[in-house]
Each structure stands twice: as structure tokens, then as C-alpha cells.
Amino acid sequence: MSTDEHARLMRANQANWDARTPVHLASRFYGLDQDLDPARWFAPFEWADLGDLAGRDVLHLQCHLGTETIALARRGARAVGLDFSAASVTAARDLAAKAGADIDYVEANVYDAVAALGRERFDVVYTGKGALCYLPDLERWAGVVAELLRPGGLLYIVEFHPLLNSLGPKPAPGEGPELLLLHDYLGGGGPVHRDATRTYTDGPAVEGATDSFEWMHGIGDVVTALTEAGLTVQRLRESDELPWQRWPQMVRTPSGWWRLPEPRIPLLYGLLATRRTGVVPSR
Description:
alpha/beta, seven-stranded mixed beta sheet, 8 helices, methyltransferase activity
């Protein structure tokens, strides 16, 4: 698929996320009408892997409403959020202002992040939890990340496991509790087109732009793209917990997240990588 075709599909996604934003703002899923608790979207291992963020320049790519960006700022980071949805960026700025968080938000496609951010470079780039599936070209993305990082800087991805993305959604009424493999685990099969008035949250129906496109990326695809862009993978974790109850049979864990009672399968992964010094990123 050509770069022009990728751009066309990403414009459709951009319109879809603009349309999703008011739905998500009104949802119980995000709970924005309650006391804002952005740290609930972080697993304990994330903070352990990220380390001390005080005084560090942190970029949150594909930040949507910026809830995780606020949590990073509350850890002392000088935080910047970037998203291609104008509606999401506007909402994120409002939420940060209400939370008293000093965060810069930039409206830009992730592939245009270097130009949008100018000379700004970062100690940490953070991304994930449903972000990479909206990117058609991982190699190009990895090159952007490498260029945004200072030498020795950290990339931290916390992303839904490809196995989770391969499983079917929450069973429909009358269906059994079995988890079925319905989608590819491995990438390379082209975009998956969805036309839906409902997103992963509760709330009202999406109005207007209901088309979206997603790409599957196996963990091997992610690791290969990063290493070829000059990053070194330092740590890879697989977790059997999610921050919300995707299936009815999931049980609450001591962390407040959710796990399948059986079988124990990976639902989330955390990947820590560093930009090697002396490497000139190429995109």
C-alpha cells in the first residue's frame, strides 16, 4: 500500500477520533465527571521501568484525552502530549487545566511529530494502550521516535498484546464465554476496516465519521522496527492484567486491574528501549 493510501486512511482515523472524543468525554469508562485519577491507567511495573521522571522531558505520543499525560506530569515530568485529533487535543488541554497540570499539547500526526515539535528533543517517549494499531508503517514510526529522543533517551511502550487483539470482543447476548481467535496475530495482512457507531467505551453513539482502520503488529514487528532505527531493547514484560473488564468472566486483582481466571494469557506488554549513542536516526 502506498504512502498516499496510508495518509488517506489515517485521515479517516483522524475524523473518527474527532467524532469519538465527545463520546469518551461523556463515558463512565473514563470517569471524567468524577475525581480525576489518571494513575489508574498505569500498571505498577510501568513506574518501575520508567524510573524517576522528575525534571525529565517526556513526550506522550498519540495521547488522546491526555489522561496518562497528566499522570506523567504529576510524577514531575515536563510533559508534552501529541495527537492528530483536534477535538482530542482541545479536550486534553481543558482536562489538564482543570487538573492544574502544566502540559503542552500539540496537534499533529505522529509521522509529522519531528516537524511539529521543531528542535525539541526528549529524555522519554511514552506511548501505547491502543496506539500502535492505528499506525500503518512501524519502520517509519520507529525512525520518528529515534529522532525525537536524545542520545541515551528512553522509549517506553505499554501496549495491548497482539494476542488480545486477535481475540474476539465481549460476547454478544446469548453467546458463550469462550474466547475465540478471530483476527490475525501477525501483521502484514493490510488494514482492518471497521464501521461502528460504538467504541470501546460506554456512552452515546458516535455521530458522523464512523469509519476507522487498524493494522496488526506482532511483537516481533515492533522489536525489529526499533532495532533497525537504532534503539536497543532493554526489557520486555508480558502481563495478564488489563485496566478494565473486557470480558464478564474477568476478576479484579489486588492492583485494581482485571485478569482472566483461566487460562492465564498475556493481555498487555511493556517494552523499554534506549536510543543508542552515536546513531544518526533515519526516516
